[in-house]
Amino acid sequence: MEYITLKNTDLTVSRLCMGGCPMGEYGWGEVQEHELLDAVNTAIDHGVNFFDTADTYGLGKSEENLGKALGGRRKEVIIASKFSVRVENRHTFYDNSPEWMEKALFSSLKRLKTDYIDLYQIHYLDGRTSIDAVVEALEKMKSKGYIRFYGLCNIHADNYQQLKPYAGRFATVQNEYSLACRDRESEFLNIVKELNVTPTTWGSLGQGILTGKYDERSVFSENDRRSREIYVNFHGEKLQKNLKIVGCIREIAEKHGIPVAAVAVRFILDHLQGSVVLTGAKRPSQILANTEAMDWTLTEDEIEKLNQVSG
Hints:
Elements: E1 3-5, E2 12-14, E3 16-19, H1 33-45, E4 50-52, H2 61-70, E5 78-83, E6 85-88, E7 91-94, H3 98-112, E8 117-122, H4 131-143, E9 147-153, E10 172-176, H5 185-195, E11 198-202, H6 236-256, H7 260-271, E12 276-280, H8 284-291, H9 300-310
Parallel strand pairs: 3-4, 3-12, 4-5, 5-8, 8-9, 9-10, 10-11, 11-12
Antiparallel strand pairs: 1-2, 6-7
Helix pairs in contact: 1-2, 1-8, 2-3, 6-7, 6-9
C-alpha cells in the first residue's frame, strides 16, 4: 500500500480510499450488507486506512454500515464524511449554514459510532452561506474535538475564487475524475494548486465502466442508477468512447497480469501527483482488485496511450 499525508494536516492516509456511496445500499443494484461489512475489513487488512462517506448516502445508511463494520477498529482508520445535502419533506437542497452543519455533524457522529470525524467535508457549496461563516463554524467544531480537519468537494472554476483567502486551511478537494471524465482536468489541477490541497477523486472507475465488466449489451435493473441516461458513461456515444478506453486499459492490464480496474486507478495515482483515489465497493473482491493498483507505476508509453485514447 502507498500512503501520503494530506495537505495541511497530520493525517497519513492510504492513496486508495474506500468510497461509501454503495454502502448506502441505494441506487447500485443488489447489495448485501454482510458483503459490505466484509469489504471494509478486507480493505483494512490490505492496508487501506481511509474511508469516505456522507450523511446523504442512503440517508445515513452508509455511515451506519461503516460504523458497524469498523467496530473496535475505529482507531486504525481515517474517516471522512460530508454535509450540506439536506432532505426535507422529499425536497433536496444544499445547506451550508452553521446551524445545519452542527446538526448534521452530530447526527453523523451518532451513526458512525464515534466521537470525532477525521476529515469533515463540504459536499457542495450552497451559493448562499458565506465561506467566512462556514469556516468559522468548522473551526469551532475543530476546537471542540468533534472534527480534526476539513475539506471540500465538487469545487469548480465558477465557485473557487471565494475560497482563495482560505488557501492552506482546507485539507482536500474531492472532484469527479477518471479516464472516462477528464473534461475539467486543468481546472481541477489549478484549484488544487491555488488552494494548496490534496486532490481526491470520486467516480474514479467511471461508476464501474472502467472495471471492464460492462459493454453495450449490459442491462441494469431499475434499482441501479446506471440504468438512467443521466449516467452518461453507460449510454450512447459516451459509452462507445469508454469502451475504447477500456480496450486500451485491458491490453495494459493483461501485460501486467492485473485487473482492468487496477490500471484505471493507477493512471490517476501516476497522473495526479500526490492524489488519493476513491473507489466504491460492494464486496471484498472489488477491494482486492483495486488494491492491485498499488506499489507499481505505469510506463511513459502506457501513460501516453491512455492519454491519447481518453483525451
